[in-house]
User: Fold this.
Amino acid sequence: MTRPVYLDYNATTPVAPEVAEAIRPFLYESFGNPSSSHVFGQHAKQAVLQARREVAALINAVPGEIYFTGCATEANNLALLGVAAKAPVGRRHLVVSAVEHPAVMEPALHLERCGWELSIVPVDARGRVSPAAVATALRPETALVSIMYANNEVGTIQPVAEIAALTRPRNILLHTDAAQSAGKIEVDVQALGVDLLTLAGHKFYAVKGVGALYVRAGTPIGSILFGGDQEHGLRAGTENVPAIVGLGAAARLARERLPGATAHLRSLRDDLHGRLAEAIPGLVLNGDPEERLPNTLHVSFPGVIGRELLEYARADVAASVGSACHSEHDTVSGVLAAMGIESVRAAGAVRLSVGWMTTKDDLTRAATALSGAWRHLVKQ
Ligand code: PLP
Assistant:
């Protein structure tokens, strides 16, 4: 039996063969603990240093500004709670957008429960935060703004550099969750002007369970894990050497493949959109038509429930109705609700995300299956 076409690259990506190859020796002969002074340990330590250089090069940072974590969720928690730990008394106000992933929203709400003031900035109908709305939310007590680089559901890209132009002169720290951006679009911490930035290995062809936080040199940040002095004392715990080596290899691949990969993903995604739009009158695009991740197609199918559509087409297509964490529930996604999308349109929404391994044949099969499923369900 042939497997369905995988169109859920925003949930996770397969591991690139080059990444798997890079990891292999670190599962077997090069198994040392980087903190050990003997040859096994020193070999592992060098590999971690090399991975740090690769990740830094991908985002135009310096290696000492990269901290490896167990996932993007941990990197986001470290950014928010770590900055909060060092914030001066009297600066306990935090700004986030209404469409943040729970990995930012939940630590923000936790800080609010701990006595911080929290402002949640709205988005427009395309899922964009307006810099003017951020400016309005800023106060003399604001310590940190956290606005994601690109949304995991609809793919809308936020005007992070414009927001940095507001926070920097006011001496307010800016964090961006770029978990969905690496490997799809350029991620440059200097051009973005951010102080902290989150990466997720398994969203760009590394393994699950590894991430990184960029922390601009000199940014006051405290630890949220207490133990050994790994990661310059900011993230205690023996390094996951194989996963970190894989993250480095994935960063190198992403750097080599961009910007070509961006254009390639866009052409695949737009091809799929064109086929679906032709077959399905009334198909509506959600998210920003232009300022959007090149691989993400979030569309509402008229007159059907997105979850039922994917269920019907499941032999041919593997995709999600929203982010992976919401796909088992029929509640309207918080992102679509924040964009003011009414419930019928939200119910018909499906997120199709392509990746480096997607082929034109995949798109033909997926478009045929999805439009066939839609025709079947609207007739019922
Ligand atoms: N941030 C964003 C934007 C994401 O899309 C995700 C994963 O879906 C995460 C954070 C959390 O990643 P992880 O589950 O690997 O910690």
